[in-house]
């Protein structure tokens, strides 16, 4: 078998979390992974380290410690200001080879996935992508990654015997971020940045980002599927009344009715709202995983046989274009009564 | 100037409706062996074809899998590609990402003279999107992922791509050769060209390489070349919902639902 560049015998017993920064803060999934890593490390008496690459990183270091990092490996360099695959892979690789941690966890965001895919091959190790849960077996000290298999009915548990680091990516929203302790302190270790200018070939020509929403922790999620026929205005009105946000299945996103960042499900966002209202959605597994953590699920579908009803607490057989306006009406009347 | 040579990585996957999980045993039941082209790879195909329309050159299809995938690949060929390379050997079976990317990379090397390697965003049965960056690493090439558009500067040997990111987009430029993953649904894949149908069925249209002809390292391929091991299977915990149907007139339902929502918030 092809050997990894370092194996279980050389590992240092620690978990590394790759910390991703996005517009003024650590990403939600970075914090979720810190919390998960913290729990595992506390059980085993291991070190939890963060790997943070970029430029002008000082504020994010404090954020990492507040969430539970012990040691922060930090590479602060103007050449890391923008994510480029060559620079990030090289610096991360150098740091990993210096410390040889047992485990490396990363968020399944576009950039981190790219980085994970490159790093795993450079280190000749395995990568478990899109894990739905992680355990560390205290006996074998191996990371057990849970991934959902075909159709979603089956969970597979995947491990690596000898290859290190044990790499896994986890989608945003799978874990819940823990308590923040602003007084917590940790150690910062600067990584020496060695970048041959020859390898830095990616040129960022232009970037444009608008407003973005974080659906992982909204209290109410009103989602629309193909059955709403692109009428997300109606759903937005309902969401507003309930203090929530709108989301969608993949078809309306593909058809351009709504922004991609509002796609819920396996390749979208995993949410944990108090209430999820599913309108005109058939209930494909790829979608359902995105709302499984909701406290209460309401489904409105004109087909009484729709699969979505198996995953709902309250089921309404009917036309969304009639039920939703009636619900908006009922909620509005109610609000007027309350507000006097 | 040499003509543009594009490789499209095409994975053949079981049709989703062909996969059933036995409710009792939780084992996979393959009803049939009907397969299809991984739908996201059709978007990669379309991007390759539009590049060929624009710049000329040729398209090679590359796939790793059993020989019974051949008919599916010939359909993709009839969309307007030039040749099929199928990497097929029982020894390739059971490959995880590390072994898959290694084998595909060896395929690209053996094809030779490749400028662009186009992949789908993810495979519908694996859905990890880890193959494109892994492939780029084995090949030591540049990479651009989640592209919705791409253009090529053949003189400067550069690829410029527009990439979807959270809340917006970015435009990146990298040197060729380059591995690209194409954003699912970013284009409308064309139909196969029926006039190419019989041409696509000809014997010489396909080259099949096994482990020997690729000269792959035996410990790098298939199950032995895969560090990750499945050690257990379990039924996904099924969150039992109330599944209570609300009945009555539309207004009664709306009223009751409003009450429920108020209670739940
Ligand atoms: C690799 C992969 C990843 C995927 N990832 C995701 C993902 O992250 N998220 C996602 O959502 N999908 C994803 N999908 C797609 C997924 O498999 C389904 O195709 C999709 O979720 C179906 O969306 P839908 O329920 O809106 O549409 P449909 O399945 O077409 O269902 C529409 C429903 O609307 C109902 N309806 C129609 N008209 C009305 C009406 N007037 N009133 C009430 N009901 C009505 C119909 O009865 C039907 O049940 C993925 C697929 C693949 C292969
Ligand atoms: N066995 C394979 N043969 C050819 N291409 C593949 C194979 N596996 C993955 N790919 C390519 O890699 C892309 C991403 O796959 P994945 O990383 O498995 O989600 C697919 O859309 C294909 O273009």
What structural keywords apply?
heterodimer; A: 340 residues; alpha/beta; Rossmann fold; 2 domains; 7-stranded parallel β-sheet; 5-stranded parallel β-sheet; 8 helices; 28% helix; elongated; B: 265 residues; 9-stranded mixed β-sheet; two-stranded antiparallel ribbon; binds flavin-adenine dinucleotide; binds adenosine monophosphate
In the CATH scheme, the class of chain B would be Alpha Beta
CATH architecture of the largest domain in chain A: 3-Layer(aba) Sandwich
What's the end-to-end separation of chain A, in Å?
73 Å
Oligomer: heterodimer
What Rg of chain A do the Cα atoms give?
22 Å
Q: Percent helix among the residues of chain A? A: 25-40%
- C-alpha Rg of chain B, in Å? 22 Å
Give the H and E element order of chain A.
Answer: EEHEHEHEHEEEEEEEEEHEHEHEEH
Low-confidence residue ranges of chain B: none
Report the major sheet of chain B.
9 strands, mixed
Reading the helices and strands of chain B in chain order gives EEEEEHEHEHEHEEEEHEHEEH
Tell me the number of helical segments of chain B per DSSP (H or I, 4 or more residues long): 7
Task: List low-confidence stretches of chain A.
Answer: none
Strand content of chain A: 25-35%
Largest sheet of chain A: 7 strands, parallel
Q: Helical element count of chain A?
A: 8
Strand order of the largest sheet of chain A: 6-11-5-2-3-4-12
Please list the strands of the largest sheet of chain B in the order they lie side by side: 11-10-9-12-8-1-6-7-13
CATH topology assignment of chain B: Rossmann fold
How would you portray this structure in words?
The complex is a heterodimer of chains A (340) and B (265). Chain A is an alpha/beta fold. Chain A contains eight helices and 18 strands. Chain A has helices spanning 28-44, 58-67, 85-99, 110-123, 232-242, 250-254, 285-288, 320-339; strands at 6-7, 12-19, 47-54, 71-76, 101-107, 127-131, 133-137, 142-148, 154-160, 163-164, 166-170, 187-190, 203-209, 220-224, 245-248, 275-279, 296-301, 314-317. In chain A, helix 3 packs across helix 4 (110-123) and helix 5 (232-242) runs parallel beside helix 8 (320-339). By secondary structure, chain B is of the alpha/beta class. Helix content of chain B is 27%, strand content 31%. Chain B is built from seven helices and 15 strands. Chain B has helices at 39-55, 70-77, 97-111, 131-139, 197-200, 211-214, 250-264, and strands at 5-9, 12-14, 19-21, 28-30, 35-37, 58-64, 83-87, 116-120, 142-153, 158-165, 168-175, 178-182, 206-209, 228-235, 244-245. In chain B, strand 9 and strand 10 (158-165) form a beta hairpin. In chain B, helix 3 crosses helix 4. Chain B starts with a strand and ends with a helix. At the A-B interface, helix 3, helix 4, strand 6, strand 9 and strand 13 of A face strand 3, helix 3, helix 4, strand 9 and strand 10 of B. Strand 9 of chain A pairs antiparallel with strand 14 (228-235) of chain B. Bound molecules: flavin-adenine dinucleotide (FAD) and adenosine monophosphate.
């Amino acid at each position: 078998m092809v050997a990894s560049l370092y194996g279980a015998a050389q590992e240092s017993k620690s978990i590394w979390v790759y910390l991703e920064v996005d517009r003024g803060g650590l990403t939600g999934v970075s914090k979720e992974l810190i919390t998960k890593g913290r729990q595992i490390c506390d059980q085993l008496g291991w070190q939890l380290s963060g790997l943070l690459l970029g430029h002008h990183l000082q504020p994010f270091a404090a954020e990492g410690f507040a969430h539970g990092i012990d040691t922060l490996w930090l590479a602060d360099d103007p050449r890391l200001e923008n994510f480029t695959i060559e620079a990030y892979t090289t610096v991360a690789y150098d740091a990993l080879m210096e410390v040889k941690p047992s485990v490396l966890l990363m968020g399944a965001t576009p950039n981190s996935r790219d980085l994970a895919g490159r790093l795993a091959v450079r280190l000749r190790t395995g990568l478990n992508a899109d894990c739905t849960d992680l355990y560390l077996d205290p006996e074998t000290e191996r990371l057990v990654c849970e991934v959902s298999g075909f159709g979603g009915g089956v969970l597979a548990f995947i491990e690596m015997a000898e290859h290190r680091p044990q790499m896994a990516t986890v989608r945003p929203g799978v874990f819940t971020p823990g308590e923040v302790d602003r007084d917590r302190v940790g150690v910062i270790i600067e990584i020496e940045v060695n970048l041959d200018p020859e390898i830095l070939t990616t040129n960022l020509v232009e970037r444009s980002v608008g407003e973005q929403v974080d659906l992982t922790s909204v209290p109410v999620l009103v989602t629309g599927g193909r059955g709403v026929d692109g009428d997300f205005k109606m759903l937005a009105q309902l969401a507003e009344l309930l203090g929530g946000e709108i989301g969608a299945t993949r078809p309306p996103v593909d058809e351009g009715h709504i922004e991609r960042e509002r796609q819920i499900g396996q390749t979208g966002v995993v949410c944990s709202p108090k209430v999820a209202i599913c309108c005109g959605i058939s209930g494909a597994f790829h979608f359902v995983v995105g709302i499984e953590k909701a406290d209460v699920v309401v489904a409105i579908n004109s087909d009484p046989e729709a699969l979505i009803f198996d995953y709902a607490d309250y089921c309404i057989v009917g036309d969304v274009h009639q039920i939703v306006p009636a619900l908006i009406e009922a909620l509005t009347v109610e609000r007027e009564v309350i507000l006097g | 100037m040499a003509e543009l040579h594009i490789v499209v990585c095409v994975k053949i996957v079981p049709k989703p409706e062909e996969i059933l999980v036995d409710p009792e045993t939780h084992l996979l039941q393959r009803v049939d062996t009907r397969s299809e082209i991984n739908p996201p790879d059709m978007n990669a195909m379309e991007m390759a074809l539009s590049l060929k329309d624009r710049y000329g050159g040729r398209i090679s299809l590359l796939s790793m899998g059993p020989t019974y995938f051949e008919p599916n690949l010939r359909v993709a060929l009839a969309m307007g590609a030039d040749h099929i390379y199928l990497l097929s050997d029982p020894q390739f079976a059971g490959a995880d990402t590390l072994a898959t990317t290694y084998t595909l990379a060896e395929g690209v090397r053996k094809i030779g003279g490749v400028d662009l390697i186009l992949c789908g965003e993810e495979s519908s049965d694996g859905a990890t999107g880890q193959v494109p960056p892994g492939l780029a690493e084995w090949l030591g090439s540049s990479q651009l992922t989640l592209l919705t558009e791409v253009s090529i500067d053949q003189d400067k040997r550069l690829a410029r791509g527009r990439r979807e990111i959270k809340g917006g987009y970015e435009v990146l430029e990298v040197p060729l050769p380059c591995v690209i993953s194409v954003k699912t649904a970013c284009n409308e894949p064309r139909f196969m060209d029926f006039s190419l149908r019989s041409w696509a069925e000809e014997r010489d249209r396909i080259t099949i390489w096994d482990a020997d002809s690729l000269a792959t390292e035996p410990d790098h391929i298939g199950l032995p070349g895969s560090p990750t091991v499945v050690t257990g299977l379990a039924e996904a915990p099924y969150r039992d919902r109330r599944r209570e149907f609300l009945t009555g007139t539309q207004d009664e339902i709306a009223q009751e639902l409003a009450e429920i929502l108020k209670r739940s918030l």
